[in-house]
Specification:
372 residues, mainly alpha
Length: 372
């Protein structure tokens, strides 16, 4: 009896943790669970079939086309910008120099006539074409050096936006237009413009590398502008006015070279090796004094003014001295002067002073025409 009661022990042994037998392998992936693994049927997703067809077109143009599509768009963008770049090449912002210098010949003309105004416009057109031609030739010759300058490297030719071939074609077009201007104008009264071109070509070919000579040639070009205006309007050119224009423009040219030395060093312009900032400081101050003195002497001796207009015009002398002092302040204190046109026409103090000076001169000219 007792032995038969102890017979349930085997079931307790069967309830023990099962040893790893066939029944314990049911948790592992069996044949039914192995269907999730890549079998022969699933190998079709590998590069043997469809995958290889996705890699095969690599040498075909289908994959090369997306990589080449930006290139034609970039070319079209360059073509759209080319007229603007060509316009920037002739520097329309610098044309204000012709508008400011050539009409000075009208100051000695009494009275003003419509024909004289038309001839003044004709002189401005000629020097605008000539100066634009010089700008293109200079940029062609200086494109390698301009790439070393922090500002000039953005010019159209130096930056590559305008090719040398396109710039050469523009040079030919400007030369043809200038020739037509000379032929259509009064005979043999275009020689100041021709002399300006000759000096500018000599400047581009080597004189720009000679210290002091380079700045003097630039200043001489503005006197030739004044002379061209005087020839076409038939007025007399005042020696004091010519000296005032020459010294003023020489001051601006020397100031530009001083700014270039301080901003970019001497590597991009060989002529800068003949200058130092201290030497240029002395020269700029000396030429500024000469400008002020020659202006006052022009007002006293040569200006065609009536008796009442002389005093009003002499009031403009402080405006002239203030303008010179303000430029020296911008150049020596604020380290400006890289582009004299931008400096003079964007400075508020200079603009207000210039407006007051112009008002005084206008009043003097009106008093000259008042019968007395």
């Amino acid at each position: 009896m007792d032995i038969t009661r102890s017979s349930p022990a085997p079931p307790r042994v069967a309830a023990a943790p099962p040893d790893p037998g066939p029944a314990g392998l049911t948790g592992l992936p069996g044949p039914a669970d192995l269907t999730g693994l890549p079998g022969p049927a699933d190998l079709t997703g590998l590069p043997e079939t469809a995958g290889l067809t996705g890699l095969a077109p690599l040498p075909e143009p289908a994959y090369a086309e997306p990589l080449e599509t930006p290139s034609p768009a970039g070319v079209r963008q360059t073509r759209r910008n080319r007229p603007r770049d060509l316009l920037a090449l002739v520097r329309p912002g610098q044309w204000v120099k012709n508008l400011a210098v050539v009409p000075l010949a009208l100051l000695d003309l009494h009275p003003w006539e419509p024909a004289a105004l038309l001839r003044t416009g004709w002189a401005i057109l000629g020097f605008t074409l000539a100066s634009a031609l010089v700008y293109v030739v200079n940029d062609l010759a200086d494109r390698e050096r301009d790439r070393l300058h922090p500002v000039k490297r953005h010019r159209p030719i130096a930056s590559g936006r305008v090719s040398p071939a396109a710039a050469t074609a523009l040079t030919g077009s400007l030369a043809l237009a200038l020739t037509c201007w000379a032929v259509a104008g009064p005979a043999w009264q275009w020689w100041p413009t021709a002399l300006y071109l000759a000096l500018s070509l000599a400047y581009s070919q080597g004189l720009k590398h000679v210290p002091l000579v380079d700045a003097f040639i630039v200043a001489t070009g503005f006197v030739l502008r004044l002379l061209q205006g005087a020839l076409l309007v038939g007025g007399r050119l005042s020696e004091w006015l010519a000296l005032c224009v020459f010294s003023l423009c020489l001051m601006l040219a020397l100031g530009k070279r001083r700014h270039e030395i301080t901003a970019a060093g001497r590597a991009h312009r060989p002529a800068l090796r003949g200058y130092t900032p201290a030497f240029l400081d002395h020269l700029v101050v000396l030429v500024a004094v000469l400008t002020a003195v020659s202006y006052v002497l022009y007002l006293r001796d040569d200006a065609a003014l009536a008796a009442g207009a002389s005093f009003v015009t002499l009031l403009s002398a402080p405006c002239a001295v203030f303008g010179l002092a303000r430029y020296l302040q911008l150049l020596l204190v604020e380290e400006g002067g890289g582009n004299p046109v931008h400096v003079l026409f964007r400075d508020r103090a200079t603009l207000v002073n210039a407006a007051l000076w112009a008002l005084l001169v206008a009043v003097a000219l009106l008093l000259r025409h008042v019968p007395g």
